[in-house]
Write a structure and sequence with these properties.
Blueprint lengths: L1 E2 L2 E5 L5 H12 L7 H5 L10 E7 L2 E15 L2 E13 L8 H16 L3 E4 L6 H7 L3 E12 L5 H7 L4 H12 L12 H4 L4 E2 L3 H10 L3 E5 L2 E7 L3 E6 L3 H17 L4 E7 L3 H7 L5 E10 L20
Parallel strand pairs: 5-6, 11-12
Antiparallel strand pairs: 1-2, 2-3, 3-4, 4-5, 4-8, 6-13, 7-12, 7-13, 9-10, 10-11
Helix pairs in contact: 5-6
Organism: Mucilaginibacter oryzae
InterPro entries: Acyl_CoA_acyltransferase, GNAT_dom
Protein name: Acetyltransferase (GNAT) family protein
Length: 312
């Protein structure tokens, strides 16, 4: 497929190395050589490598891809996909490649039976999704930050490589009493009656293959989080009384592993959001957008947590 000197090809396993090199050129940082292989290995859905690369003179110039998954609503599982990696090489911006690759991807989605798309764009890409690609804003997330008085051990370990191993050992030691045998938890928004990402055993196995996270049990409550300049909560399913007890315990854990904040992201409509607002002033965060390709789902029915985002 050719257009204005660009050759456009569907993503394949053989082209994942080109995606890795494009990511390096765009973001000026490297990922593990097999990162995208693990991220786009969605064989559990029956579909893989849903996206397109543009090449100029045989060099990767742009990419757009989605990650297949299932949305659970009541007793039905809907084949869906998350709009994930969108990148254009600095030398090839302003050529319309983002829109062209996206439209090709949506056409492929329809052909493959994907009926619902969702995404979490930044402010730079949001206008393109809304004004040129027919997406709609379904919800807005809010960020809640709980400060912790602690020595910045993680920051020190990031700056001084010889401390990294010692820091990781300290994290394992401090989390050991809380760790569970599995990794990941059931979807809290589905528990509230929303349509949400189906986190069955296959999905959690896929997610944990490319995204390092921890699942701990604090009291009777399960908490799924990552460490990234703080404890970043992916999902938690608390009652109001539980959260009042859990936050001090999470602060203690954060303090013991040298993290100075706990970060929650919650849909405005969820119970977690309402509970957190009683304790912390929220900060406006990112929008949730959807593109319905034929699923019997309404905007107000669908919700997501931070654990559902591909960067978690």
């Amino acid at each position: 497929m050719h257009n204005n000197g660009y050759r456009i090809e569907r993503l394949t396993e053989e082209r994942l190395a080109d995606l890795t090199s494009l990511h390096q050129a765009v973001y000026q940082k490297s990922v593990a050589p097999d990162f995208f292989k693990r991220k786009y290995n969605t064989a559990f859905t029956g579909l893989m490598h849903v996206g397109f690369l543009a090449y100029y003179e045989d060099k990767p110039s742009a990419f757009y891809g989605v990650i297949p998954c299932f949305i659970k609503f009541k007793n039905e599982s809907v084949l869906a996909a998350q709009s994930a990696d969108t990148m254009t090489h600095p030398n090839h911006r302003g050529k319309g490649l983002f829109i062209e690759l996206a439209e090709l991807t949506y056409r492929l989605c329809r052909t493959e039976g994907i009926r619902f798309l969702f995404g979490f764009p930044n402010q730079n890409s949001l206008p393109g999704f809304l004004n040129k690609l027919g997406w709609q804003v379904s919800a807005n997330m809010e960020c809640f930050i709980i400060q912790v008085k602690a020595l910045p051990l993680q920051k020190a370990a990031n700056k001084l490589p010889f401390l990294k191993g010692l820091y990781e050992a300290q994290v394992k030691h401090q989390l050991r009493p809380y760790l569970t045998t599995g990794n990941g938890i059931g979807n809290s928004v589905v528990g509230e009656g929303f349509a949400g990402l189906k986190r069955d055993e296959d999905y959690l196995k896929y997610k944990n293959a490319y995204s390092g996270s921890f699942t701990i049990k604090v009291g009777t409550t399960m908490v799924w989080f990552k460490i990234n300049d703080g404890i970043v909560i992916g999902d938690i399913d608390p009652t109001p009384n539980d959260l009042n007890k859990i936050i001090p315990r999470l602060q203690k854990i954060a303090r013991n592993i040298g993290l100075r904040k706990i970060v929650f992201q919650a849909d405005k409509r969820t119970m977690l959001n309402m509970i957190l607002k009683e304790r912390v002033q929220p900060i406006p965060s990112f929008p949730v957008i959807i593109k319905n390709l034929g699923a019997d789902l309404q905007l107000h029915n669908v919700a997501f947590t931070f654990a559902d985002i591909d960067i978690f």
